[in-house]
Amino acid sequence: MFSKKVVIVTGSSSGIGKVAARLFAREEASVVLHGQNLERLQQAESELKQHHPSAKTVTVSGPIQDEGTWNRIVSSAIDTFGRIDVLLNNAGISDDGKDPNGLECFQYCMDVNVKSVIGVTRACLPHLKKTKGTVVNTSSALARKIHPGLPMYSVSKAALEHYSRHAAYEYAPFGIRVNCVAPGLIETKFHSRGAAAAPVEAKADAEEVPLQRMGNPEEIAEVMVFLASDKCSYVTGEVVRADGGLLIMPVIGLSRACLPHLKETKGNIINVSSALEDKINPFAPMYAISKAALKHYTHHAAFEYAPFGIRVNNVSPGLTDTYFHQRHMSSKPAQIQAVTNVIPLKRMGKPEEVGEMIAFVASDKCSYATGECFGVNGGIKIKP
């Protein structure tokens, strides 16, 4: 899937980033690993090579908030491999022992979780333009959920998601896609440092999640790899949440009819909605209203069915070249061009692109996502 492509993964010495680097290598990518702790970084590279002996890698160590580190990451990628196709901005911190309510913590979180992402992305930009590459940023479920113990971390992740939407819109004309993955409660050293580490407290945390468990790094990393791939070529400006559902008439009837059997298999439900669920369209008001209702039902069903191990998600296509849209659009090239010009990626989507997302969301690679909406819309929702 990533043969002859070059992937940068910041924060890849442990946790989600370490697993993501390994999965990109599994898909035959050349990987630039980054971490602040040189010993852990070298260990991560060694473990990657144990899984994939023929993998091509290079390591860069240093504080991610320093401009010098950004430049060394880029120069190492170009000097070693000659190109950059994917940037995974995964490095991040919570309070790192600082007063979580203090301004020092705020500045630290903003420097590491936001400024560094902007800096590394801009440093990579000339090379991403050449390859029509993609950027994936690691956010958090706390970007839209109140956590009294981590206020500055949550604020920084909300800022990161908003930056990602702006970057997606700004870079779309160059064929560059920008998306976020927002993990929930994941079994990593990061969680044990910034949240409850004791078994009893960790169990209490997990019980707040509709799926009744913490996620694992592999479940998040699989989403990252998919978002970065060509199978996700019509997705930009989206936040894909893999949080176990922490946030969350025919369709309802069919879902309920299938429920006894889905309980037996711990299956999942995919509802196909529309980008119009969140947008005003004067020509299709009732259609848009029905899709908004479907999205809201998805949230309720995800919460209700999670204790049975059943996942429920939405896939929301934008303007897609199908018979459905042909019935409702002019066939004149000039009018079609006028419509596609408002889409940041400047084209209609293809059924295959929507189908790839549906297949992925239904797969075990997406096993910690429920109650979410996966947009496949060319970035239409980020247009001002």
Structural features:
384 residues, Rossmann fold, 7-stranded parallel beta sheet, 3-stranded parallel beta sheet, 10 strands, Sc_DH/Rdtase_CS, SDR_fam, NAD(P)-bd_dom_sf, Dehydrogenase
Give a description of the structure.
The protein is an alpha/beta fold and 384 residues long. The chain has 2 domains: 6-253, Rossmann fold; 255-383, Rossmann fold (3-Layer(aba) Sandwich). The chain is built from 13 helices and 10 strands. The strands form 2 sheets. It has a 7-stranded parallel sheet, with helices on both faces. The chain has a 3-stranded parallel sheet with strand order 8-9-10, sandwiched between helices. The two termini are 33 Å apart. Keywords: Oxidoreductase. It comes from Bursaphelenchus xylophilus. Pfam families: adh_short_C2 (PF13561). This is Dehydrogenase.
SSE-based structural type: alpha/beta
Give the CA-CA distance, first to last residue.
33 Å
Radius of gyration (Å): 21 Å
The CATH H-level superfamily of the largest domain is NAD(P)-binding Rossmann-like Domain
The overall average pLDDT, rounded, is: 88
Helix content: 40-55%
Coarse morphology: globular
CATH class categorisation of the largest domain: Alpha Beta
| Biggest sheet statistics | 7 strands, parallel
Q: Beta fraction of the residues?
A: 5-15%
- Enter the CATH topology name of the largest domain: Rossmann fold
**Which architecture of the largest domain does the CATH hierarchy give at level 2?**
3-Layer(aba) Sandwich
Helix and strand element order: EHEHEHEHEHEHHHEHEHEHHHE
Which segments are poorly predicted (pLDDT under 50) over 5 or more consecutive residues?
194-201
**Count of DSSP-assigned helices:** 13
Major beta sheet, strand line-up: 3-2-1-4-5-6-7
Organism: Bursaphelenchus xylophilus
Pfam families: adh_short_C2
Keywords: Oxidoreductase
GO molecular function: oxidoreductase activity
